[in-house]
From TrEMBL:
Gene3D superfamilies: Nucleoside phosphorylase/phosphoribosyltransferase catalytic domain, Pyrimidine nucleoside phosphorylase-like, C-terminal domain, Transferase, Pyrimidine Nucleoside Phosphorylase, Chain C. InterPro entries: Glycosyl_Trfase_fam3, Glycosyl_Trfase_fam3_N_dom, Glycosyl_Trfase_fam3_N_dom_sf, Nuc_phospho_transferase, PYNP-like_C_sf, PYNP_C, Pyrmidine_PPas_bac/euk, Pyrmidine_PPase_CS. This is Thymidine phosphorylase. It comes from the Bacteria. One of its GO terms (biological process) is pyrimidine nucleoside metabolic process. One of its GO terms (molecular function) is 1,4-alpha-oligoglucan phosphorylase activity. Belongs to the thymidine/pyrimidine-nucleoside phosphorylase family. Pfam families: Glycos_trans_3N, Glycos_transf_3, PYNP_C. It comes from Umezawaea tangerina. Residues 332-406 form the Pyrimidine nucleoside phosphorylase C-terminal domain. GO terms for cellular component: cytosol. Keywords: Glycosyltransferase, Transferase.
Amino acid sequence: MSAVDVIRAKRDGHRLTDEQIDWVVDAYTRGAVADEQMSALAMAIFLNGMESAETARWTRAMVLSGDRLSLDVDRPTVDKHSTGGVGDKITLPLAPLVAACGAAVPQLSGRGLGHTGGTLDKLESIPGWRARLSLDEIMAQLSSVGAVVCAATEGLAPADRKLYALRDVTSTVEAVPLIASSIMSKKIAEGAEALVLDVKVGSGAFMKTLPQARELAAALVSIGVDHGLRISAMLTDMSVPLGVAVGNAVEVAESVDVLRGGGPADVVELTVALAREMLSLAGIDTDPAEVLASGKAYETWERMIRAQGGDPDAPLPVGGHKHVVTAPEDGVLATLDAYAVGVAAWRLGAGRARKEDPVQAGAGVLCLAKPGDRVEAGQPLLELRTDTPDAVPYALEALAGGYTVADSAVTPGPLVIDTIR
Ligand code: URA
């Protein structure tokens, strides 16, 4: 078989055969297909798409490129994956909550790239906390605590690691078959029995429109079903940042508030809704709202953080420089654009432009008013935090037009738009 034949077939709009897919993914992982050939193939897939059976086979080949974990624990295993958003700290309260309800939650997570934050970057703002665990440590913590949030091990879907880096620099990320196979190959390799997908839709998400998000959700669910997972996808709004905090340490602090029975209403709502769905797929009949209120989820959080070397009681870093954006006039905050806030937080140092860049633990944005809130001229709307004050003008530039004050605001739509099972 030759890479050129496979590229030509997809370039000319043909369906790739199982043999072609298995061969090209394996050969690319081994280095026998060059980056430039895989780039051309990714672009051909981007332009001509893949049928669902092709996407399923492509996913299977990526799973087989590495290890598939066998999670041998005495509780049902269930995971959650978010397609990424602004202020999306939900994994932090959710993993200990679902574990406190009786499931085992293996959450192998990534770092942030661009305007969406990464779960590991957020947790690394806790002094001492360690993202990299060995397989033995993951298994031990899953059994003892019930929840692990850590970096994916090197051996999981190595074909995806190589291909994702290539897609990032060849403008071939935003293709549904490639996104769906990338996400699902890692989740299938991780070995959980059940998975709930949080497919974000809106300006701060990958998928800007509901039809696009539905297409991605359907592709993800179909791959999961094919691989024997119990799976569902919730379509959730990402046109406005989730909660108040957008950044790293600020999002940890907000998650702790939620685990202690407080926190912003939207973060609590989504955490409980996702927990209900996860528990339902795991076959556990427990009310997560009651467990959250009981303080048991917070106890599990403390054990989860300590198990990975972190000190849950240590003060969190705070950006050394603050800048407050105020309301220009009296009225109602009509819009607060998730993408604009995400880019501002990123420019303040909360995110990275290249995957090797460091992030600032204390950088971020606090959204002190949310759409629908009445505001007075001069009232603080946004608090920007950073260790690099020179970044503030760039963050303000990102926020220009990102919020509006008007006489009235449109009533926001639901946070959970739909669930696809
Ligand atoms: N997240 C992934 O893991 N892969 C993609 O292709 C896009 C988002």
